[in-house]
Amino acid sequence: MTALLEVRDVSVVFDGFRALDGVNFTVDHGELRFLIGPNGAGKTTLIDIITGLTKPTTGTVSFDGAVVNGKREHQRVRLGIGRTFQTSVVFEELTVLENLDLAASFRKPLASLLARRKGITEKVAQALETTGLGELAQKKAGVLSHGQRQWLEIGMLIAQGPRLLLLDEPVAGMSSEERVRTGDLLTEIARDHTVIVIEHDMDFLRRYASTVTVLHEGKLLIEGSVDEVRADPRVQEVYLGRAREEAAHDVVG
Amino acid sequence: MTATLEKPPVTEAPVKEPRDWRGPALFALVAVIGLVVMPLVLEPFRLGLLAKYLTYAIVALGIGLAWGQGGMLTLGQGVFFGLGGYAMGMHLKLNDAGDGLPDFMVWSGVETLPALWEPFRNPVFAIAMVVVVPGAIAWLLGTLVFRQRVRGAYFAILTQALAAAMVILLVGQQGLTGGTNGLTNFFEFFGQDVAADSTQRGLYFTVAIVLGVLFLGAWQLQRSRFGRLLLAVRDGEDRVRFLGYNPATVKTITFTLSAVMAGIAGALFVPIVGIISPALLGVVPSLELVVAVAIGGRFALAGAVLGAVLMGYAKTYFSEELPDAWLYLQGALFILVIGLAPKGIIGIISSLRRRKEAAA
After folding, report:
1. Residue B301 lies in a domain
2. Which terminus of chain A has fewer CB atoms gathered within 10 Å of its CB, N or C?
3. pLDDT tens digits, chain A, 253 residues: what are they?
């Protein structure tokens, strides 16, 4: 069985700057993979390459055995690749429910979208339940707090029913209470989905026994379990660009 | 905050969606005023003016859909209005001319009927073209530009250039289009004297009903999933792609609908006002309707219609009383609305209502 996602030898050059440099990256069915690295390491660029927002200068992206390089963003979503953004972009004029409903409806033929939404579909109900946004269903997304918006984004992703979920720093800017809630959410989602999460908070990673991929300056530095990565001197060297002792303390401690 | 951290029980239906009857009630009231009261109280001349404003309101409805709901600032709806108008005008001219040539062709020295005109003898063909030509051109334009992610001011400028080009094309083809004068001097409209009060009355009812039907259609569209998607495209086109939809398709469909509405309005305008000419569909009239929609309130379909009718009345009134002041007043109103009340008259009304409800 082939891997679900296979990024082969991908490089991206922006105006002479190599954002990614010959990256090979494979994710299997059902995996929960963390993608870490200091700022500017190329994490978001890698996600952009996978979802079609950025075109690679060289290299290929294969999803479920088929090369998707030529596909546009919405076509990749239709194949089953879904993502969230670092700064959440929910639709503020629509209610929470309408946001989720739109996310759940993209497989419907266009003509059937001309009908009004009647009630709540199962997928939307499930997304409301998983994210705990049920009470806010009728509120416009514009009134949500930062944390609630991130959950709504994740909820939209669940409603979309993708085979691969890419989450770009889902806990950035969240209070510790919100982080815990998001962590639970992530565990729940990872149970029956393939998930890639960008995160550079090592504390957040510690609770998951899964593979971590470390990027640095556009290159893949190391891939392994959380413990292996923590113990690796190169990671300690580069992680967060801090002095060795401080980084070691942060990572190990 | 804390409340949302706990999951609500699944069985508890989290959503109640109350039905709001105020909108339908208001629509019914306006329909009664439009179809019963106005024809009774207005003399034929004034009823004709209202019929003209209602044709503008149809264009405005399309602008409300494309701009207010879909974020496509279209400054060239006159093009589609004109295409519909000319299709109707050509049929009426041919019908009046019988076996001969339309009068302006004779004056221009044209000796045989241009091939383009021939099929417009058939009323069914002409009416079909009223819808098909504007729709096809908007579809083609939309397909070309939205795919390339042309939007915002660039799209607005493009549509305005289209309006300017259309005028140049029409003026330049004197023998084919009647040039600057356009098509006018119609006598018969589907077997009736076009100038007769009864015909004009019938036309008033026709345009009022067409507007009502299109409004209901647009309203339904706005409330559908497609309508929600359209708002999403307006507010975050790039995000919509990651929901699995192609924004270009959504925009092309909406833009085409707005063009078809403008085409229908143009076709109704011709027998009501008795002329279609380049001056009626160029940059200025196209802009005037956008201004009217902004003043009425572009985020509500009713605002677009209201704006078009009010601005139509205001233009007539001030042009009669203070002809020099109108343009300044129009400009000042536009600036005031954009600066102080970006949601227009409808926005002011609903914020007053909210304040009243909050006080009660």
Report:
1. no
2. N
3. 578 999 999 999 988 888 999 999 999 998 999 998 888 889 999 999 999 999 999 999 999 999 999 999 999 999 999 998 888 789 999 999 999 999 999 988 888 898 888 888 999 999 999 888 999 999 999 999 988 999 999 999 999 989 999 999 888 888 888 888 888 888 888 888 899 999 877 777 877 778 899 998 899 988 998 888 888 888 887 764 555 455 455 554 4
- In angstroms, rounded to a whole number, what is the distance separating the alpha carbons of residues A33 and B128? 58
ipTM: 0.85
Q: Tell me the DSSP string of A67-97.
A: E-TT--HHHHHHHTEEE--SS----TTSBHH
Q: Give the number of beta-carbon pairs within 8 Å between A and B.
A: 106
Instruction: Show residues of chain B in contact with A116, CB under 8 Å.
Output: 220, 223-225
Count of the separate structural domains present in chain A:
1
Give the nearest partner residue to B8 out of A83, A107, A134, using CB atoms.
Answer: A134
The residues, any chain, with a CB within 8 Å of residue B286's CB and separated by 6 or more, are: B75, B76, B77, B78, B79, B159, B160, B163
Q: Which two tokens stand for residue B69?
A: 């709901």
B356 within a domain of the structure (yes/no): no
Q: What is the CATH number of the domain that holds A224?
A: 3.40.50.300
Q: Which of A107, A120, A135 sits opposite B4 (nearest CB)?
A: A135
Residue B279 is assigned to a structural domain of this protein: no
Q: Does residue B231 fall inside a structural domain?
A: yes
